[in-house]
Please model this.
Amino acid sequence: MTTDELQALANEDDDPATAARGRWDTEYLGRCYRSVVETAMLRAGRGTRTVLKTDLWNEALGGARDIAGHFHETHGHRFFGLDLARRVCAEARSRVPTVRVVQADIRALPFRPQSFDVVLDLSTLDHLPEAGVVQALGEYARVLRDGGVLLVVFWQRSLLVRQRLLMKRLLGLREKSNQSYFARADVRAGLGKTLTVLDEFVAGTLFVPPYRLMGVLLDRLPARALSALLRGVAAVERWDAARPLLKHVAGLYGFAALRSQRVAPRPPSVTPCRSAVRAAP
Ligand SMILES: C[S@@+](CC[C@H](N)C(=O)[O-])C[C@H]1O[C@@H](n2cnc3c(N)ncnc32)[C@H](O)[C@@H]1O
Model:
């Protein structure tokens, strides 16, 4: 991601529609992520876990979107976090001092094999071109301990997403250059033999709302009403009976997978930035 792209994403307040989008994403994405991470943590078992969180965008933004700080505070988990962008690393480091930050690429993790109980990828993978997916998932398998859990959430090529992409093309609008959309089956296949799927789920459906309308709603709705609304949405999204339909329309889809076998260790190929740390196995 270039500095300009980062700047554009960070300055969401300039335009009312993008400002509304930023607020909506914070409220809604924050909840989606926290809810799926809770489930993954339960899968990983009780106790303090050593967790790797890939990309630190949400930690850099802080507030309701921060995962590492939140789960450290509420569950005591030890967090390592990484991001490709130096600026995102710096921002996350200053906002969430409890996370140990490494500047690195998910395709070449600078950690020893079997370092983590949990790896959380909340929409980092889908910033890679398709060719990088197997590589990144292989790295997650390598750094997870036997019995460790991977949570991977990604933007899928759902019906709504395809429709949106088509509309944008017809209107001559540019799609974000750093965003990929994957088929569920391809990500599942990329998990390979080392990672066994425990669960798959709809992580978020409401990503293409009319943002100006959402902005008005967010401005007018009392916090409690907004909370109730989002809880209702989450309940529908996690409802088993709705899954067969929602999985075709949901933007965000996820897998929780168990690392079930040993894999041959591969030496790290990225030199961590100055403040980088390595998780001790
Ligand atoms: C636009 S942000 C959004 C992701 C965020 N998880 C979310 O869903 O809101 C993408 C983040 O992923 C980071 N990123 C992109 N490619 C990466 C890679 N190959 N390895 C590590 N981080 C990467 C970027 O620097 C940026 O901080």
Residues 1, 9, 29, 55, 57-58, 83-85, 88, 105-106, 122-124, 127-128 surround S-adenosylmethionine (CB under 6 Å). The first strand starts at residue 50 and ends at 54.
